[in-house]
Design goal:
This protein is α/β, with parallel strands linked by helices. About 25% of the residues lie in helices and about 40% in strands. The protein has helices at about 10-20, 60-70, 90-95; strands spanning about 5, 30-35, 35-45, 75-85, 105-110, 115-125, 125-135. It has a 7-stranded mixed sheet, with helices on both faces. The longest helix has 13 residues, at about 10-20.
């Protein structure tokens, strides 16, 4: 298992920006890779009823994003979402709902004033292992 990942500043900035412009809901989407290098983000609407503290990828947009990833010869690298009022750690619900075992989970926290936090986790069998991120 990979113990660290490299994210371009451009990709990390895009993820942090999406979280900042929607601070009242959990933003979510997919990140693709080429040759196991994170490449592009695909924002997807959060359809959760309680979108302030959970996320549910819009199924039509998710299918469309996965199709574009395949068409662009990319692979699913990660699922990302934000925590507007919680640390950048998987919640019990995040652990329970994780279904793509081959994808990492990127979590952005807006919980700290003035500082955005981005952390990566591998989730298997409802257990999370942190993967370090290098920009």
């Amino acid at each position: 298992m990979k113990t660290d990942i490299k994210l371009s500043r451009k990709l990390a900035s895009a993820l942090l920006h999406f979280a900042q412009i929607s601070p009242d809901i959990e933003i979510c989407g997919l990140v693709s890779s080429k040759n196991n290098v994170p490449f592009r983000c695909y924002p997807i609407e959060n359809r959760a009823i309680e979108s302030k503290n959970r996320f549910l990828l819009d199924s039509k947009q998710q299918i469309s994003a996965l199709k574009k990833i395949r068409e662009n010869d990319e692979e699913l690298f990660a699922i990302y979402h934000s925590h507007p009022n919680a640390p950048a750690c998987p919640s019990a619900l995040d652990l329970e709902m994780a279904t793509y075992e081959n994808a990492l989970h990127l979590i952005i926290s807006l919980n700290t004033k003035g500082i955005l936090e981005l952390r990566a986790f591998k989730i298997e069998n409802q257990n999370a292992t942190e993967i370090s991120i290098t920009l």
